[in-house]
Write a structure and sequence with these properties.
Elements lengths: L10 H20 L14 E6 L2 E7 L5 E7 L4 H15 L16
Antiparallel strand pairs: 1-2, 2-3
């Protein structure tokens, strides 16, 4: 569920990206046991690198994530820090309750 998006992209595109980021976060959690420990802990972030840039996906509250894009030459530390600042500033507004039908069979 999309909570907010940049004014630089339309609502339909933002909904598509939100669904993709939710899937990416889920996939990241699914492969976590392959880091070699039985309980890898909570997922924190996923980075996607492309020839021309990056997609950052970070935890932003219970059931919420913050995604951002950056150019290939981004200062990774500054980008991560700024995203964490944004998550802190948004606080509880970024927490989304579980869907009512989560886990139910159709």
């Amino acid at each position: 569920m999309l909570l907010a998006n940049s004014s630089e992209i339309g609502r339909d595109d933002a909904e598509t990206v939100a669904a993709a980021m939710s899937s990416m976060q889920s996939l990241s959690r699914a492969v976590a046991p392959f880091i070699g420990t039985r309980n890898p802990g909570r997922w924190r972030q996923t980075l996607l690198e492309y020839e021309d840039g990056w997609i950052f996906l970070i935890a932003a509250g219970t059931g919420a994530y913050l995604a951002a894009t950056a150019a290939a030459d981004v200062d990774m530390e500054a980008m991560s820090f700024r995203m964490q600042q944004q998550v802190t500033a948004l606080g509880k507004a970024m927490t989304t309750p579980p869907r009512q039908n989560a886990g139910s069979e159709i």
